Amino acid sequence: MITDFNNKTAVLTGAGSGFGLECARIGAKLGMNLVLADVQQDALDKTVAEMQAAGAQVLAMRVDVSKAEQVEALGAATLARFGAPHFVFNNAGVASAGLIWENTQADWEWVIGVNLMGVAHGVRVFTPMMLAAAAKDPAYQGHIVNTASMAGLLNAPNMGIYNVSKHAVVSLSETLYQDLALVTDQISASVLCPFFVPTGISQSHRNRPQDVTDAAAKPTKSQLIGQAMSDKAVGSGKISAAEVAQMVFDAIAANQFYIYSHPKAIGSVQTRLEDVLQGRNPTDPFAHKPELGVELKKALRAA
């Protein structure tokens, strides 16, 4: 269990908005050194100014987490400034909607690059530093938090790439937890699986690289419908990003692996796992709200 966060160093990707920003705010209050990374420079600058005003020691870098060399540069800069971090929040993520066969190669490369490879690069770069620090200091404790989603445990229709990427993050995180347990008692891991929480995730296309945007075809009907549904669901979320960030810190302190923003949503996960165990076909995802399924089907089938 980790209870003392003062003077510890945290690396946070996606620090310019959403969970990354809120975790940085908590970290600043707790007296932590903050390594802040985001692909959006203006959002990152605002976070840096706020954290410095709160008295935190800050290292900031503009980073596209899908690029291995940029995450490696972030690792080298962190080590040079603060030494090995105690906490790593692999949080950067993007969303994409639409029928799964309508996504372009550019769509796949962008979403998998950020959501999955961004986490993979973070784990690959920072875990060895943390293990080296633990080997040198028996009092050292570390924790890695990877942001997945309830979409890593469920498969809602019309958001296929996102589901695929987040299932992979859950798998990576569970494996990381088990692998760490084999080699150390000083470092552990958690996976964050939020449901619909008001963050900037539904507007991810604002940070879509120009080469990906240029390669993308005009959005299909299913993608436009998916974007509208995502905007509505995320925007109407009742649990704030700040509340979820506090759940993350509470989970670190308790060495809790699965972090859920909406525990009631686990009922749908149970249904899915029962489908798997019983070999039955996937349950209608709209069984609890049939009108949503009717509305989506009607919109997609309209001429």
Protein model, in words:
The model has no long low-confidence stretch (mean pLDDT 91). Helix 5 links the parallel strand 5 and strand 6. By secondary structure, this protein is of the alpha/beta class. It has helices spanning 18-29, 41-53, 68-82, 105-136, 160-183, 210-215, 221-235, 241-254, 266-278, 290-301; strands at residues 9-13, 33-38, 58-62, 87-90, 142-147, 187-193, 258-260.
Please give the structural blueprint:
Elements: E1 9-13, H1 18-29, E2 33-38, H2 41-53, E3 58-62, H3 68-82, E4 87-90, H4 105-136, E5 142-147, H5 160-183, E6 187-193, H6 210-215, H7 221-235, H8 241-254, E7 258-260, H9 266-278, H10 290-301
Parallel strand pairs: 1-2, 1-4, 2-3, 4-5, 5-6, 6-7
Helix pairs in contact: 1-2, 1-8, 3-4, 4-5
Task: Count up the helices.
Answer: 10
Quantity of strands, as a count: 7
Rg calc: 19 Å
Please bin the fraction of helical residues: 40-55%
- Characterize the main sheet: 7 strands, parallel
Features:
seven-stranded parallel sheet; 303 residues; 12% strand; alpha/beta
Summarize the structure.
The chain is of the alpha/beta class and 303 residues long. It has ten helices and seven strands.
